[in-house]
Amino acid sequence: MHDSHVHSIFSDDGMEAVEDVVATALSRGCDYVAITDHVNRDYQVIGYDNPQINMSAYVAAMQDFKRRFNKKNFRLAMGAELGFLKSANNLYIKDLADIDFDVIINSVHCVLGSEVYYAEYFNKCPYKHFAYLEYLKAVRESVDAPYPYDIIGHIGYIQRNAPYKEPDMFYEEFSDVFDDILTAIIEKDKCLEVNSKTYRGGKTTSEFSLRHLSIPDVDVLKRYYELGGRKISFGSDAHRTNSIAYNYDKIAAAMKEIGFEGFTRYVNREPELVKF
Prior knowledge:
Elements: E1 2-6, H1 18-27, E2 32-39, H2 41-46, H3 55-69, E3 75-83, H4 89-96, E4 103-107, E5 110-111, E6 114-115, H5 119-124, H6 128-143, E7 151-152, H7 175-187, E8 191-195, H8 218-226, E9 232-235, H9 248-258, E10 262-267, E11 270-275
Parallel strand pairs: 1-2, 2-3, 3-4, 4-7, 7-8, 8-9
Antiparallel strand pairs: 5-6, 10-11
Helix pairs in contact: 6-7
């Protein structure tokens, strides 16, 4: 078991010390956990006043933690989650220069000048299809980011706090743009994240089924496999220790049923396949 997407107190919204993340991961049988704290230059460009990560302090601390915790049966990886925004590209290029990350996640949080988790985004959008389509167009643009990254993060993030009675984003409604995104991920030899944080921010659904196990939706993952995609990563997106490796076994079983061999994780930016 492992987790390639976990946040710590170095993120502006992180709640847990790295030591506690490691202790919990070990107690749950994980042999690898990646701390992927937020680098929110998208927020900076838009004008949000969220604190920015102190990159030098983060890197120094993580290098120390890696020396302390990396052993034969456990690896702590130093990562980052970048909030894609085209106008922030040069800031990310500067941020990433000369830093030896293990893994870099590229995610979309902001579209049309707003964070899509906030009500202000949906107030700009006249209806659900438009709101989701604009988000997916930004995801497609993120695949072409000029800075280094390994994983496209949490496609479907917009669903988590959407104000709709049925917030789900299904493949069939956006098949053309999904196919474009998935094909680009494959062609660029990137990895698609299977993120287990769906509606746990208070959102409920009328029916729990396989479709609700992860974002992206299972039908998107099936289509990714049909198109030739084989690299998938598992990430809980945990901001608290109680969510580390959340639903790992259920999601692994679902991915195996689709046909995937295992999850990909990264060390020194090199992929490792961990078979189911």
